[in-house]
Each structure stands twice: as C-alpha cells, then as structure tokens.
Amino acid sequence: MKKISLKDIALLAGVSPSTVSFVLNGKEKQMRISEDLANKVRAVATKEGYKPNQVAVSLRTGQSKILGLIVESIGGTFFGALAKVIEKEADKYGYRIVYCSTENDPAKGREMLRVLSHSNVDGYMMTPVEGMEKDVMELLKSKRPVVLIDGYFPDIPAPYVLVNNAAGVTQGMNHLISRGYSKIGFVTVDIDLVQIREREQAYIAALKKHKLGANRKLMLTLEYNYDKQAGVKAISKFIKDHPEMDAIFFATYYLGISGLQSVQELKLRIPKDLAMVCFDDHDIFALYPPGVTTIAQPVEQIGITAVSLLIQQLGKDKKTITQARVEIDGDFIQRGST
Amino acid sequence: MKKISLKDIALLAGVSPSTVSFVLNGKEKQMRISEDLANKVRAVATKEGYKPNQVAVSLRTGQSKILGLIVESIGGTFFGALAKVIEKEADKYGYRIVYCSTENDPAKGREMLRVLSHSNVDGYMMTPVEGMEKDVMELLKSKRPVVLIDGYFPDIPAPYVLVNNAAGVTQGMNHLISRGYSKIGFVTVDIDLVQIREREQAYIAALKKHKLGANRKLMLTLEYNYDKQAGVKAISKFIKDHPEMDAIFFATYYLGISGLQSVQELKLRIPKDLAMVCFDDHDIFALYPPGVTTIAQPVEQIGITAVSLLIQQLGKDKKTITQARVEIDGDFIQRGST
DNA sequence: TCTTTTTGCAAAATCGTTTTAGTATACTAC
DNA sequence: GTAGTATACTAAAACGATTTTGCAAAAAGA
After folding, report:
1. Phi/psi at B179 (5° precision)
2. Cβ within 8 Å, pair B119-A54
C-alpha cells in the first residue's frame, strides 16, 4: 500500500525516470519524446494514480506552491473571513495556504517567518506587527515575495493592501455630523499600527474640518488585550463622564461590541440617548436592535488583491512590485444606531 | 545572502556533513563525537545562524512535523476558535498546522487529503463530511494517524473527539421543561452528520421521557447552505404556524442567529412570548438582550484532546488508538431567554 | 561512402538532509 | 608482535523528484 514514486512508473513503463518526468511535466516536445512513448507513460501514470511527492519536488525546484499567511489571530472574524477568501483565491492559481497567527507578538511573528522560510514557502502575506519592520526589510532584500495586509509600515517599501481607513472614518463622521450630532466621542486601542492611527487622525481631522473644536478629551484609548469586563467598565465610565456626548465612534469591531455592552448596562437607548458608528462590521451589529451603523471592511477584495499582488511577484519575470499600495474603500452600512 | 546549508557548516568547521548532522541532532554521544569537536560545530552553527532546511529533512525522514487540519469552513466562529486552540497546542509538541476547508464537499475534502498526503503531513485532524467514509478508511488502513473532530462515522473505527451532543440537548430540554415550558420546538438542518442527528434524537427522547407526546410536528428542518433571508422567513413561518409553541431549541448557532432575527421581525418578546435555547455559543447570544441560553462547545478541551490523540499516534511505538472516542460535556450557559 | 546533424531517450548530477557502513588510529590483551 | 576492540570520525547511499549532459542510432548532407 506504499506510495508509488516516479521511479515505479518508470519501471512499469519500461523507460527511465527522466523520461517520465519530462512527459508528466509537459516537456515531451522540448525533449522530443515520441508521441507513442509519451502516451504510454501517461497511461501508466494515470492507471497507477501517480502523484508527485511534493516534498521532493520542492527540494529540487526550490518552490513549494505554498503561500504563508501570517495574521494577528486566526480566531477573529475579520481574519477568519479573510483566510477563507485567500484560500479560495490562491487555490485558483494552484497555491495552498499555511496559516499562522502572531497574537501581535513580533517574536512569534519572527519565529513564524523563520519556520515558513525553511519550509520553502513561495511567498508571504502578513498583517504588520509593531516591531517587525526589520524582518520585513530582510524579506524584501532577499527578494522574497511579500504582501502586507490590513496595514503597512510607513518607511518600508513593501506592497500592501488594506481598507481606506481615513476615508471610512471620514465618511462615518460626515454621516454623524450631517445627522446633527456634534459631540462625537471616539474609542480606540493603543496598538501602534498605522490602520488604527489613521482612523484616529481621520476622526480628529473631521472634528477640525467641521469646527467641532479640539475636543480631544472625547477620545478613549483602551489597552490592547484589555480585559473584557474592564473594557466595558472603562467605556461606561467614559460615557458617564461625558454626558454631553451624543455619539460614539468605535475604531474596531471588538471595541464596538464592548461598547454595546456598556450601552446595555447603562440602559441607554440607541440612537436616542447615544448614536453609534463602528469601524469593521460584525454579525452582531446587523442583529442587535436597532442595528449599528458600520464601515465594513471589503474582505473579499482585500483577499483577492493580496493574492493577486503576491502571484504577480511569483512569475518567471519576478518583477518586484514594491510600489503597489492598494487602499480599498470600505462599505458604509447604515443601520438604526444613527 | 543565500541560505547556509549543513554542508556550509561542515566546510567552515572543517568536518564532514555527517558529523555536523550528528552533533546538531544530539547524536554526538551515540556516534562518539568528541566534546571539543562537537562544541566547535555548535559554535559555527549558531554563529552562522544555521537552521536545517525542513523540506530536505522531510524528504529524508518522511516526517514533516506538520499536521493537517481539515475543517468545514475556516471562517466559522467555532472552527476559527478551534483552529486557534489547535495551533497553540500543536506548537507545544513542535508541530505546525496546515488548514484546509471542505465547505462540506466530499470531493474537496478528498482533494485536500490527497494534497496533504503528498506533502508528507504526519497526521490528519478532520471534521467528518458525509461521503468521506471510504477516504477515512483508507487512511486508517495505511496507518496514517487520524483524529475526527466534532463528529464521527458510526461504522468507522477512527478515534474522535466531540461535544456530548445528546447530553447537551438533554440538559437544555430538562432546563426548559423544569421551567414549565411544554410545547418545545426544534429547528435543525438537513446535513447528514451524526452530531446533528444526535441532537435531534436527544430532543425527541426528551419529549418522550417527559411525556410531551409525539409532537414531531414541532420540528423544522432547514437546508444546509440555506439562504439567509429564506431561513429567517422559514423560521418566522414556523413560529407563526405554531402559536402554541412556548419555546424553541436551535440545533446550531447559525440557526439560532437566524432565529433571533425571526423573533425580532415578529416582534416577539423573549422569553415572555417564546423561550429560546441554542446549541453552540456565540458572542451575540451573550449580548443580545436578554441573552440566549446556550450549550457552549468546549472548544479548548476539544482542541487539546484532538491534538493529544493525534500526537499519541505519532510516537515511535505508533500505537493505533482506534478506540479512543471522547465526548466532552458542553457548558450550559443560562441567560435571559429561558 | 563518410561526415555531420538530428532524433529519442538514458545516465548522472543535484537539491539538503539523515543514516548506514566503513576506515584509520589508538589502545588492550595474550 | 599480532589480533582484537574501542574510538572518532568520514564516505557514501538514500529520500524522490528535476535537469543537464551524454550517447547511441537514424537521417541528412556532401
């Protein structure tokens, strides 16, 4: 019941291993193998159900047909959905995906890169983690195909694809303002990632633009990996401390969920007592009455673009497209909270 | 900047490749390499930052230190959480995970098995898909380590681990009944998987046991991959068609979510108009007022057990533990819906 | 007819390891 | 002094493919 190798096929067909390889790799013309023999080889191969040992192929060719996907956490809804899209998309090009999560720890991310590298993966897709700038530079220097997802490093010329954070927040803010809200709070998190900072800046910019003053006091910054209960409490306190606040913008979906819980505990009514907008959509926002207005990340497009950017770097020509910077507009979904 | 190989280390240390291999694999004693030389080799190796090429190792040893995880869909909350636990757990044993999803399609599952097999994965964890019985049998026959997760094939002696579906439903039903509900409906889905059937049977058994009659009419079976809107509609109709029904049990979390939506559209009040219990927990059930009582799958334990069962089959002794059938009790979480 | 070219395939090198089988030297024993 | 046995390594085969090179036989050219 052991696996059959190319050698076995060669033996059965009465030819040399090289001939089998040529035929099965479509190089029969180039190597001028006669049509008859080629057919015979193919017949034997299909009859025996031969499939090449990918490990051997990888060792010899240096290519694995595997792409590494390193995300913050496989468990999350955004990354889960993303992984699904990416897997499906990569499959179209004949690539498989190996997933890893970093939990936002650069050491773990580095380790993952190392592991993947020694497994001959052909390219990397990763969500930037604070502290991994050098590692990404290394990849670029050694001409390894990379695409950053959901963020980027400002000073590093790696291709990336992410939602247009600024545009999304701006749209959300404009929406709130046009609805008459003027004391708008913003709840964010203290990870040092561009995507978060961009959202914060867009919030501040919107306030300025509409002359809603420098109410920076209406910003709450939670710690990353904050305790769930503590987060809810902090948000509740934030709301109570600012009774004038008529709307809140949450920078991520998990903040928004905590926010919903706070609102619930405070028995506030949405949007009567407090309007709400959240960056990143989530099932719950569609369902929780009266629904939360969100800017949904275009997961499909992000995934498809990422794979495409990576595949482009994998061709024979191997053009390094360090300049590809794609920002895709999020989908504004209005619901009952505004 | 090219990668350094074992041969390079050998050259630099002035020894043969075999010596380097022995030292780095801790076989220096056995192969009686002198302490001095061993240290020298180690020094060179660390200085050069040598890491073995896993592909070559895999080809030579036939082992990859990779486990295949084939789930229904990476995107789902249950599988996402499971993947996270499994990745973390496998890491403890020095194994990495390659994820694939089947989308409940046996053809795709088969393809994945094939691909993984030719990548030398050391073992498989998979959620059973209707129609893959033979494929699993094949794996068993060829002594490949396998563990089924979240379900099993009744006639196939493969080790498995899943939540105790019957116990969970029974507990939920008892809870409802003890609270005075007697016209209890059940919404399920038409995939032919043991885990679903067990839940259905436990429901019926509970009705019988408590002499609530053969109200099989109170069962609604939706199609797998049902359209979201259509599902909600069907559930609404089901509720309207059975005004006597005072409680509903949902067999999976996505059914429960659709159910919440129906309830919302019908403007019913929970638990006043209708009580609700759902198998499988979800963020939303904790948050949606007044909260939905659920039986949560013990994701952590399932993941840990699965990895453990697989690792046991990977040792030198390679004991095939086909008899390991683990059912873990779910966590009953009571919330406002009952 | 003899050389040159083309055809059709096979041999052998290679990828980077692991592992089995050797080999040279030193030591022990009689 | 010779045989046997440790000692401390190295050489070479192997894993399963791909790819470069080689080499007969047939065809073409002179």
Report:
1. -85, 0
2. yes
